[in-house]
């Protein structure tokens, strides 16, 4: 096998990525040294200070001198409507896990009646503000257009980055899973028993585009792994924290859907979809001069989930009566905890659960 291409953009694991610009870019309520709560009749708001992620000390701070210089590089965005998502379930997934992930993805589009605010659709509205050189916005309509289950791990349980494209190629050869080179986006979702190159050590997910020699067309795709058994303290943070840090803070937060791996995975899926939509061919919206290691709209706000974030605080998020933490409402009563995204209108990190 030939050497893989220059490394695609990937999700770094530092929780402090936004600290350097947050106080200059976002009007926030600065958290006190103890957890802040505001009790209401049905739920509370909490802004806990959590220990740093386990790999934060070795994190290369991407584009720290370019954080306020997010620029458009004349490439396309995902403006064709609808955005067709094709899901490749690689490995063993149970039905509730699939339904939870699909519930989040289906919540990205506006619904009738509207989902209560703050909603996943409200969150995607920020991504839809990005345009291409013709002025066309990222589409607000996102559909699940197809699914393929690779139950037998057709390429094994240990994958390289380039193997992800081979997984996609196997899926599209299995009719009726199409090669949708106009509106299509492929999401490869690997189960908790699958080891992927750099997973846990340096990445929780990444996005890139397929090579015509492998799939037939250049199509945006993303890979995200379920970290439940391998590194939940890294890729499912803040629902899990390293054991040696457990005595230094309030402890891990309770996931909104009682599945640490999948609940953590959903925020990574959101991160990658936001960046894939605004920089699908790695030549549209990013900061820095190196397109092989761009700082994108998710990177600018990684670790920030609400107002008052910074200095180790994740920001004001909601907590239900069962103690489960969330900041967005989805369809069918589902709730999710998803990081904020850089807004081109505000020139700051933004989320629909903002309190100011």
From TrEMBL:
Highest taxon of the lineage: Eukaryota
Keyword Signal: yes
Keyword terms: Apoplast, Secreted, Signal
Signal peptide: 1-31
Key word Glycoprotein present: no
Cellular localization per UniProt: Secreted, Extracellular space, Apoplast
GO cellular component, one term: apoplast
Family: Belongs to the EXORDIUM family.
Protein name: Phosphate-induced protein 1
């Amino acid at each position: 096998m030939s050497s893989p291409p220059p490394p695609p953009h990937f999700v770094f694991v530092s929780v402090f990525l936004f600290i350097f610009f947050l106080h200059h870019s976002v009007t926030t309520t600065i958290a006190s040294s103890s957890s802040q709560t505001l009790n209401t009749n049905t739920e509370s708001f909490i802004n806990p200070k959590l220990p740093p992620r386990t790999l934060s000390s070795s994190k290369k701070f991407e584009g720290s001198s370019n954080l306020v210089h997010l620029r458009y590089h004349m490439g396309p965005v995902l403006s064709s409507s609808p955005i067709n998502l094709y899901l490749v379930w690689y490995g063993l997934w149970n039905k509730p896990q699939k339904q939870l992930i699909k519930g989040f993805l289906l919540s990205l589009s506006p619904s009738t009646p509207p989902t209560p605010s703050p909603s996943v659709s409200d969150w995607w509205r920020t991504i839809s503000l990005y345009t291409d050189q013709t002025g066309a916005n990222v589409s607000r309509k996102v559909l699940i257009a197809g699914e393929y289950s690779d139950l037998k791990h057709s390429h094994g349980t240990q994958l390289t980055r380039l193997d992800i494209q081979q997984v996609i190629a196997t899926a599209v050869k299995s009719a009726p899973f199409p090669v949708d080179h106009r509106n299509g986006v492929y999401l490869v979702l690997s189960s908790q028993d699958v080891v992927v190159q750099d997973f846990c050590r340096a990445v929780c997910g990444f996005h890139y585009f397929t090579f015509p020699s492998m799939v037939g067309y250049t199509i945006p795709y993303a890979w995200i792994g379920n970290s439940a058994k391998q590194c939940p303290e890294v890729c499912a943070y803040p629902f899990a924290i390293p054991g040696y840090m457990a005595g230094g803070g309030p402890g891990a937060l309770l996931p909104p859907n009682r599945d640490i791996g999948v609940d953590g995975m959903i925020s990574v899926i959101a991160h990658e979809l936001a960046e894939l939509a605004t920089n699908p061919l790695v030549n549209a919206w990013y900061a820095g001069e190196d397109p092989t290691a761009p700082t994108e709209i998710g990177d600018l706000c990684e670790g920030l989930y609400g107002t008052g974030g910074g200095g180790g605080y994740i920001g004001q998020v909601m907590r239900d009566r069962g103690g489960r933490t969330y900041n967005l409402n989805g369809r069918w009563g589902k709730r999710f905890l998803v990081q904020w995204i850089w807004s081109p209108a505000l020139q700051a990190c933004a989320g629909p659960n903002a309190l100011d």
